[in-house]
Amino acid sequence: MSPRAPKKCARGGCETRGVGRYCPAHQSGWTSGGSPRTSTAGHKAWRTAVLARDKGACQIRGPHCTGRATIADHILNVAAGGAPYDLDNGQAVCATCHTAKTQREAAIGRGATPRQRDAPTVGGLHPLPPGGAALRRGGLLREAAMHLMSVSQPHRPL
After folding, report:
1. pLDDT tens digits, residue range 2-14?
2. Can you spell out the DSSP letters for 26-67?
């Protein structure tokens, strides 16, 4: 079989010829792999350990929780200074709860006011989700993360 004939780059106006759709100067740089941080062996081992420790049960238990955890989430996100591979900074969560938490964290990061939560507050802070021993396991890290999220969240009076 003979090699492909070179074709013009698909980028409008570029006359460079090559065997791919775009010439090297106009390739987007996108790859089919995941994030370099989450693709490491260390992150994969941390994820597996967090999901196994929490027995596949969502630790957030939000309003639309599916109950089945498929994501290992950082209680205090890495961008805010959370330890990336510390098991005490990890919790198993379902995709629905993870999306809601990520949106709240992103809004706080942008300086926006997050949407109002339906959950009542206790002493001005949003209560931790039910989970028994899982709540005590995170200790101060979980309290700090919940406090950071609740400080900028408006709430309804009881």
Report:
1. 777 888 888 888 8
2. G-----SS--TTTTSHHHHHHHHHHHHHTTTB-SS--TT--S
